[in-house]
Amino acid sequence: MSELFGFIKELTGLSGPIGQEAAVLDYIEPLWQAAGAHTERTRLGNIIARAGGNGPKLLLAAHADELSYLVRAIDAGGFLWLANGQAWTRTTSLREWFTVGQPVRVLARGGTIPGVIASAAGHIASLVLPEPAQLTWNDFWVDTGLSRDELLARGVTPGTRVIWDAETSQRGSHVVGKALDDRVPLAVITEVLRRVPPAARAFDLTLACTVQEEIGVVGAAALAAREQFDAAIAVEIGLAGDIPGIGENAMPLRLGGGPGLVHKDALVHYDHALTSALEQAAARADIPIQHAVFGSFGSDGVSFMRADIPAAMVVFPARYTHTPFETGHLGDIAALIDWLAAFVRGG
Predict the structure, then answer these.
(1) What is the assigned CATH class of domain 69-164?
(2) Known catalytic residue: 213?
(3) Fewer Cβ atoms within 10 A, N terminus or C terminus of the chain?
(4) 322 is in an annotated binding site
(5) Catalytic residue (one of 66, 191, 213, 326)
(6) 224-256: per-residue pLDDT in tens?
(7) Global pTM?
(8) Which Gene Ontology terms describe the biological processes this protein takes part in (predicted)?
(9) 29 is in an annotated binding site
């Protein structure tokens, strides 16, 4: 488990915001080449790794990008006003207050600048401001300690990406940090590639590291438009309901219960035959799995289904998704590797 955690820690520590995934791509491509795959990059940036094997063409896909903000303006006092890296409106959910106080990396042209997401707080807020009834994008900002002129000199402009700066840690059997979505699945499919040699594969295996999943499965759509596969498996973070206030009736996945097989999400019903084949492979390998349907969730799998490529989605359950403290279970992640390796072997 220590080696697996170390691999995840390296991947999650990389800076790979939506649209600027190069650090992740540059890290993963030589690993896939060292494992015997022949790689190419598409014009959009996806990595395709052709690994070989005997049988139908199977794609294992995980995405490189992590959630990010963008600088929308630089205040005269040097504060950075933010825009969301996904859809963006005037307000955001009050549940997003967790981001205030988080350290961040401002990915400036002149190098990374540390900062913190700040808001009026404590004594001055209680003295001057009313209690908020809503959270808007004018209620918080990034404070780097630099002036506006210093930020401009370092290459900060509207459009500069900002990501959370959280070190991944191990707490018992749990792994906690930023960008588990979707760097853990990148680690998973890399380990499958390493563990199952070409002669043992029941499929002609291809791996894909896609870009811009978080803004609308852009990379996967481009990949599906250029190449056909007999089947595709989107490997993703999952949703765990084992926290206060949620519960099994809303989301039955739990940490430590095994990887998850997702039958549908907000965008697509996954291919029934492929989903059943994955379930049967887990049973033959004696790997406990969990089942789920997702609501407010989508994956690269929808792009493959829309291109007439039968697709399934498998996940490792996680608490606190889309935060800098996403939390998964190393046992579930290891079991996900074993499950996919068994499937690729034809088990």
Answers:
(1) mainly beta
(2) yes
(3) N
(4) yes
(5) 213
(6) 999 999 999 999 999 999 999 998 899 999 999
(7) 0.96
(8) proteolysis
(9) no
